[in-house]
Write a structure and sequence with these properties.
It is built from 4 helices and 7 strands; from the N terminus they run H-H-E-E-E-E-E-H-E-E-H. The protein is an alpha/beta fold and 162 residues long.
């Protein structure tokens, strides 16, 4: 009984919750390339390009451009899942996503509003896996002999050999 009490004392509430997830500042993003992390940043402005791509500017107007090494981008095709970003202007946010290299800097792509609440990015299937896929013709998107219905005649064949 005493040993059991000792074990409960050693297990902290953070351990039971899976540990606290730390959010990094934008300056630390380059150290986490190709990893899913949380970044805490202040959004100074929201910039929209002519093609509908939106950027959350996390660098103050006093910062030099070469000192701004992190950005948050949201593409036009994700607008319905991301929503209105103008409400984030002048706010502190936490965003979860994969930090990717982009032109000597790093970025997180905002694909779904749930990323602002600790949730995952929107799943995007690999275009290479979709090549040749046709649901209308019940054709798989890859060439797999096991899925073709052709039987492999190998050493474990049930037919007797002479």
């Amino acid at each position: 009984m005493r040993n059991l009490l000792f074990v409960f004392v050693l297990i902290s509430p953070a351990t039971l919750r899976g540990g606290e997830r730390r959010c990094f500042v934008p300056d630390e993003a380059m150290q986490h390339l190709n990893k899913v992390v949380c970044i805490s940043a202040h959004v100074y402005k929201v910039v929209e390009l002519a093609d509908g791509t939106r950027f959350l500017d996390v660098c103050s107007s006093e910062a030099r451009d070469e000192d701004c090494r992190f950005s948050i981008v949201s593409r036009a095709e994700d607008r319905a899942d991301v929503g209105d970003l103008s409400a984030l202007r002048d706010k502190d946010i936490d965003i979860r996503g994969t930090v990717r290299p982009f032109g000597g800097r790093s970025e997180i792509e905002l694909t779904h509003v749930r990323q602002l609440h600790g949730g995952p990015e929107k799943f995007r299937p690999s275009p290479a896996l979709l090549a040749g896929f046709s649901a209308e013709h019940e054709k798989p998107g890859f060439n797999d002999k096991a899925a073709s219905g052709v039987q492999h005649k190998g050493s474990f064949s049930t037919k007797k050999r002479r």
